[in-house]
Amino acid sequence: MSAVAYEVDGETAVLTVNYPPVNALSAAVRTGLGEALERAGADSAVKAVVILGAGKTFIAGADITEFGTDKSKVKPSIHDLQTVLEGFPKLTVAAIHGTALGGGLEVALTCHARVALASAKVGLPEVNLGILPGAGGTQRLPRLTGVEVGIDLVTSGKHVPAPKALELGIVDAIVDDVRSGGIAFAREALASGKTFVPVIERNEKITGIDPSVFAEARKNVGKKARGKIAPMVIIDCIEAACTRPAKEALAFESEKFQELYASDQRAALMHYFFAERQARKIPGIPADVKAKPITSCAIIGAGTMGGGIAMSFANAGIPVTLLDLNQEALDRGIGVIRKNYGISVSRGSISQDKMDKALSLITPTTDYADLAQCDIVIEAALERMDVKKEIFARLDALMKPGAILATNTSYLSIDEIASATRRPGDVVGCHFFSPANVMKLLENVRSAVTSAETIVTVMEMGKTIGKVPVLAGSTEGFIGNRMLQYYTGEAEFLLEQGATPEQIDRVATKFGMAMGPMSMRDLAGMDMAVVSRKGRAASIPEGERLSPIVERLVEAGRFGQKTNKGFYRYEGRDKLSDPETMEIIEGVSRDFGITRREFTDEEVEARLFAPLVNEGAKEIEDGTAIRAGDIDVAWVNGYGFPVHRGGPMYWGEQYGLDKIYQMALEAEKRNGPRWGPCKLLERLAKEGKGWDAA
Ligand code: T1G
């Protein structure tokens, strides 16, 4: 059966693409579209063609699963289809619901017109895959939206809601039903004799563009790109649209597409694309185990984390009951939530209406009884096991049967917290990252007895509230923080041995991290770090140590940004080097008899990131992480690891697991047994294999 259904309704041929799950432009769809267009062209009774998608969406792009396979070479190509469409002698209308993305939107842009449901979205997200819209997207979209908007949309890959797309000229009408609306639009156009100029021939918005527009774009996009190459190449292509004949500019775009397709960044970003989706799949859970509905949420603790979590649920339209022990703490928490929403509204990132709607969904209370009927309760109170166990015992007695009892703890044992209840299967970790209304990672943590239903529910819930969920086992620090201690720990040992905070942070940000480890310490507040390091002191084996640099800085009153000095000195928005910091660091070197030396940036980079890979291998070996890709997803979404490097485990595999293994042996000698390699890494390194052989 063809992937494209063909039927005629009056004088309109309706072509329905039916290729689940997202109607990607696979070989089957391209073949089906080619045949259906031929048929419509040959049928004298047909005066117009409407193309739409079956199921949940229009065409969501080229079929990424066919990239690099023979199927991607099957004719007609997307370009072939576009040539037929752009030269089609009869009216063609793309009728969009769900999403029209990438090649899907590019095909729609070669139709005479586009109509869409108000709930639909369109976009060119190829940049997120390390490539660019290689089927004329950089040439046609700016012809509709104008150059500056075009640059913003294509370099960001953002999805544009249909009403905005109508305003920008990307779609021609909003309809209530794709099929009947598409047909009606075609009929009216035919009846009125309306003519449509092919998008590629509309030049008014790309003519006479001042070159400074591209210089400005390169400056602004370059700052956000953090080392990604595709955004900059996209600007080149859009500039070509404005400065070269269409045919030449289209050829330029194809050439640049091929160059990007061959890049390491494209391979890393495609790895990440599939890893993020794979992370939602939990092996060993029977297919008939379904997620429970989460229609209400209770949160304990109206502090920074509790408030951010409340916003995440309210933003997804889920009512929240926010509890704190006293009215003053509650009022403060609600005040912070209001302030955060106000900032978003003033920045234009959400409307006043969305803010009001979200706030109306958050109900503050000091009475535990108000939580009892919620589908899930998330505890975000003090990071102390005694406090958590007391709360969970109370929740166990209070919450309705079947409610999920979750804790936002960042490293405490879920098994031990669950032991305070008579329903341990309903207890799970839902570890959000600060600021919880912004950070995408939701690290769900299962104990040895968390039920399959609870796991499936919080994984589905993560997606519902716009997070990227990853499932972790309950070893100390779970997936992310357990690795983080080796990244920050090695950074501090490097300081003792001769590197400077400036060099380490420069290397880390050049690598693509959102922020270097020393700056991150200053932002988070080192006084808090000292408290949690004290709490974890027992887990440091005999004969091993942590660097005392953080403690010495705190003793000197240097907590970080909150005291205007930490590793750096802060004057307003300026971050300045401070000789006092180096005195403290050099004092530690002296106390440990370390002769300081110069480090190359390459050595600093390897020493910073290799320990992440080494600990990640241990997490795969002991089952804390289900797969290497999950660790990549956690680090990209929770710790600012550059997505165009695929994640720490993908980076380590490209760098060479044999080199990672050798570095772990050296670190073991230098820092102690916790830093040595595990059996899994040793095996993969010696066999020359990658994580898929884990
Ligand atoms: N090709 C193949 N499979 C795809 C796919 C695609 N384009 N998009 C999604 N899938 C699979 C996905 O792997 C998952 O599979 C299932 O569909 C559901 O996805 C020439 C060359 C459309 C917004 O980048 O953004 O066009 O895990 O969980 O949350 O210029 O999927 O179930 O086995 O994400 O409802 C450009 C990428 C391609 C769109 C739906 N297009 N996809 O989100 O479902 S390059 C994209 C998405 C291109 C041209 C170039 C989202 C979605 P499985 P999901 P969702």
UniProtKB/TrEMBL annotation:
Protein localization: Peroxisome
The keyword Oxidoreductase belongs to this UniProt entry's keyword annotation: yes
Catalytic activity: a (3S)-3-hydroxyacyl-CoA + NAD(+) = a 3-oxoacyl-CoA + NADH + H(+)
Alphabetized CDD domains for the sequence: crotonase-like
SUPFAM superfamilies cross-referenced by the UniProt entry: 6-phosphogluconate dehydrogenase C-terminal domain-like, ClpP/crotonase, NAD(P)-binding Rossmann-fold domains
Domain of life: Bacteria
Domain 3-hydroxyacyl-CoA dehydrogenase C-terminal: 477-570, 606-689
InterPro entries noted in UniProt: 3-OHacyl-CoA_DH_NAD-bd, 3HC_DH_C, 6-PGluconate_DH-like_C_sf, ClpP/crotonase-like_dom_sf, Enoyl-CoA_hyd/isom_CS, Enoyl-CoA_hydra/iso, NAD(P)-bd_dom_sf
Pathway the protein takes part in: Lipid metabolism; fatty acid beta-oxidation
The family this protein is said to belong to: In the N-terminal section; belongs to the enoyl-CoA hydratase/isomerase family. Belongs to the enoyl-CoA hydratase/isomerase family.
The protein's name in its UniProt record: 3-hydroxyacyl-CoA dehydrogenase NAD-binding domain-containing protein
